[in-house]
Write a structure and sequence with these properties.
elongated, alpha+beta, 12 strands, 16 helices, 468 residues
Length: 468
């Protein structure tokens, strides 16, 4: 982790080399955000006071962070990457995946897994602090102890009166579950935003959309100019008085870092991405018609989130992340592929044999196929691998089969035979919508939909072979 130092009013210097634009944006960011030229950084770096010549660059005291203590010179440039002296302390509780261990993907929007437990060493290497003014790292003593139980002991004024509106501008209802979670998110955003490496922070998930209920966790998405270090991610947890559960290594498949911690009883999940990664995701989906579900979930998160820091960047991404017509065709063809209906032709046999689990699997695949195709017909990015907040998603649809919500519900509540009949008609109606509105090739899917295994009984007695 490299120290930042001020190279003049409004500019940053990193390891002796000043830079004039967000390097991770690859030029795309500057072309998308109004007012951000190629030689300006200030549009996305938070306004911070410039250190005067009278101000000391030495940190006043030891700073406490998970697994780290660092003190000494905080304003050195050039090749000086570590403070004059430092201490290392054991990392406090929590789990962290080992960098050398095989770790499954941890996608919050479906199928996320915690990292493997981290074998805690007696000491860990000390790191220098990120930035010239790290006032948001907690110090030892009474001040730190007072912050430890922020979520429990410090009520957020006014949250009871908040009406959480939807990010799309729609009117919202008073939702206490969303309001108090959002108030905590705003406090967290102020802590994270003190780091100049952070380009934007948003509230995602049900809190971001204003739909949260008593089961909802708090999901924060952080977008960074540079790769976040351990202190960038764990430091705010300590300031907020949280209990760190997991600090996961970078996931190369989903291109994110993820953290889990608790503020009192509230579970908080943080996903971190580079600005350059999201720039590429947007271009992959919109320009190169990429149907990767991970990238589509990121597009959905951008459109449905509530920005708390760096709103200009989020708005620029939203403006670019349109749903092109070619993508509609590609997603429909992926949703209505022949493999989705594997075993469909034997549905009558499954019912007759009482194979309830096999029937329910077939009905589930049919429901997901229809829902994915209908979302594409409406130009809506799928926000989750599974269909969460189903009723709310259906309320956003303009193009769909008649009585869509009721018919989907019948797939889950009716007996096997009736549910399969409902599924067959729903699939057929969806096929008609697709043919009327796109030129997608779903011929293989239609062939599979028309298959039905014929029952075969014993031959008539006169054709039976003679018994020896």
């Amino acid at each position: 982790m490299r120290l930042h130092c001020l190279a003049g009013p409004g500019r940053l210097k990193r390891c002796g080399h000043s830079f004039g634009k967000p390097e991770q944006a690859g030029g795309t960011l500057t072309g998308s955000v109004a007012g951000l030229s190629q030689n300006e950084v200030g549009a996305h770096l938070p306004d911070r006071p410039v250190l005067s010549s009278e101000q000391p660059t030495r940190l006043p005291d030891s700073l406490f962070c998970p697994g780290r203590i660092a003190c000494g010179q905080g304003g050195g440039g050039g090749s000086e990457e570590r403070s004059a002296f430092s201490y290392a302390i054991p990392f406090p509780g929590g789990i962290r995946p080992s960098a050398s261990s095989a770790r499954p993907g941890r996608a919050r929007n479906g199928g996320r897994h915690r990292g493997q437990p981290w074998t805690r060493p007696q000491y860990v290497p000390a790191l220098s602090l990120p930035g010239p003014n790290p006032d948001w790292w907690p110090t030892r003593g009474a001040e730190f102890n007072q912050r430890r139980r922020l979520a429990d002991a410090m009520p957020v004024p006014g949250w009871q009166d908040q009406i959480v509106a939807r990010p799309d501008g729609g009117s919202g209802d008073a939702n206490v579950h969303a309001a108090w979670r959002l108030a905590l998110a705003e406090q967290a955003a102020r802590v994270y935003a003190s780091n100049e490496k952070l380009a934007a922070l948003t509230v995602a998930g049900s809190v971001g959309t204003g739909l949260a209920d008593r089961f909802s966790d708090l999901e924060l998405d952080c977008y960074w100019f540079d790769p976040p270090g351990d202190l960038d991610r764990s430091g705010p947890v300590q300031v907020l008085g949280g209990d760190l559960d997991a600090l996961c290594d970078y996931d190369p498949e989903e291109e994110e870092w993820s953290d889990d911690y608790r503020l009192g009883e509230l579970e908080v999940t943080v996903s971190s991405f580079l600005v350059s990664t999201i720039d590429r995701f947007v271009d992959d989906v919109v320009l190169r018609i990429d149907t990767d579900p991970v990238k589509h979930m990121r597009m959905a998160a951008l459109h449905r989130c509530r920005p708390l820091h760096g709103p200009e960047l989020i708005s620029a991404w939203r403006a670019r992340a349109v749903y092109p017509g070619a993508l509609v065709v590609a997603v429909v063809e992926r949703s209505l592929s022949a493999g989705v209906l594997a075993g469909w032709g034997a549905r009558d046999a499954l019912v007759g044999r009482g194979d309830d689990l096999a029937v329910r699997d077939l009905l589930s695949r049919a429901g997901f196929a229809v829902f994915g195709a209908v979302l594409a017909l409406n130009g809506i990015y799928s926000p989750h691998r599974t269909v969460k907040w189903q009723s709310h998603l259906i309320s956003e649809l303009d193009v769909m089969p008649g009585h869509f919500a009721e018919r989907l519900r019948l797939l889950a509540t009716c007996g096997n035979a009736q549910a399969l009949r409902e599924a067959e008609t729903l699939l057929a109606d969806t096929v008609q919508l697709v043919k009327a509105r796109t030129d997608a090739d779903i011929s293989s899917f239609c062939d599979e939909l028309s298959r039905r295994r014929r029952p075969v009984g014993p031959p008539p007695a006169k054709h039976r072979p003679a018994t020896p």
